[in-house]
Recover the amino acids of this structure.
């Protein structure tokens, strides 16, 4: 019996969740991903969610809308959402088709998103240095 590859992973890092989409998802898989992530936001009382789509080289209008809806669902559950890793061809296609991310924050990569969230939530480098006793 062959085990299917993991399509999505959701990892907890402190008060953040990091959700990585590893391969294209069909509509039902996207809806399950939404449900699972929103449920985990509540379970772990997460303050923010990073949705990493770097592995996707194609994102159709349903997928784009599902990601934006997911960001809004996270907000309604009290968590900030940042989408990272939008590939150049995906960005071009989204603009060409008239799709945009609206008020949803996007970042180039995971590192940039975590820095943004740390600064926004008061966990920035200066605060970390003070709490560890260094300056």
């Amino acid at each position: 019996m062959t085990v299917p590859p993991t399509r999505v992973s959701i990892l907890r890092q402190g008060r953040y969740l990091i959700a990585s989409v590893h391969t294209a998802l069909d509509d039902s898989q996207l809806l399950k991903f939404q449900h699972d992530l929103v449920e985990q936001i509540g379970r772990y009382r997460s303050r923010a969610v990073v949705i990493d789509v770097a592995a996707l080289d194609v994102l159709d209008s349903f997928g784009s809308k599902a990601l934006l809806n997911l960001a809004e669902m996270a907000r309604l559950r009290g968590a900030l959402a940042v989408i990272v890793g939008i590939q150049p061809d995906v960005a071009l296609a989204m603009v060409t088709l008239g799709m945009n991310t609206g008020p949803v924050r996007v970042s180039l990569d995971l590192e940039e998103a975590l820095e943004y969230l740390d600064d926004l939530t008061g966990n920035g480098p200066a605060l970390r240095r003070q709490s560890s006793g260094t300056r």
